[in-house]
Design brief:
Strand order of the largest sheet: 1-2
CATH architecture: Orthogonal Bundle
Number of helices: 6
Strand content: 5-15%
Helix content: over 70%
Number of strands: 2
Radius of gyration: 17 Å
Number of domains: 1
Structural class: mainly alpha
């Protein structure tokens, strides 16, 4: 991937938006005595970075968003597992999305990519939380999985329209420069 100023600027903005949506705006719901459910949209800009610029860019965006976000706005102790989860948010949807032909890759393909990614990351994050809180995974997993999967349609819809908007914006910039 060739790194241009436009790509670097866009990725930096997506890191910032992810930090704001993931660290400042989320709703935190306690369960079993700990902050078990975080309903947020912080992962959407990370997935968007991957879908627009490739899996490596998505993973790096996720790592930077989590590391900078946890440094500036700590919610608990820093744990590298959550950083890995954010990297998966940037990497995995692209891998799934690219398995389908471009002309058939619409909302439902994006829905599938977000669904599988949310499922994988929910399991990973529950494992990280169980390690940190010393609680059983099976106690924490059901409500976390439910909350994560309920967000999938909205995340897929936001990503679908964001990708369309970015592509239209890029085309208009290309026409203006030529």
């Amino acid at each position: 991937m060739r790194i241009t100023t436009k790509k670097l600027t866009t990725l930096g903005l997506l890191v910032g938006v992810s930090i704001v949506l993931g660290r400042i705006v989320p709703v935190i719901v306690p369960f079993a005595g700990i902050q078990a459910l975080r309903i947020s949209f912080g992962q959407v800009p990370v997935m968007l970075a991957g879908l627009l610029f490739g899996p490596a860019a998505g993973a790096v965006t996720g790592v930077l968003a989590d590391f900078i976000g946890s440094s500036l706005f700590p919610i608990g102790p820093y744990f590298p597992g959550f950083t890995l989860s954010y990297a998966v948010f940037g990497f995995l949807p692209v891998i799934i999305w690219r398995q389908f032909p471009r002309q058939k890759a619409g909302y439902w393909t994006l829905f599938l990519a977000v669904f599988v990614t949310s499922l994988v990351v929910s399991i990973l994050n529950t494992l990280w939380l169980a390690i940190l809180s010393r609680q059983a995974v099976w106690v924490l997993l059901p409500p976390r999985l439910l909350a994560s999967l309920l967000q999938v349609p909205l995340h897929a819809l936001i990503l679908h329209y964001s990708m369309q908007g970015y592509e239209a914006y890029s085309r208009s910039l290309s026409r203006q420069s030529s």
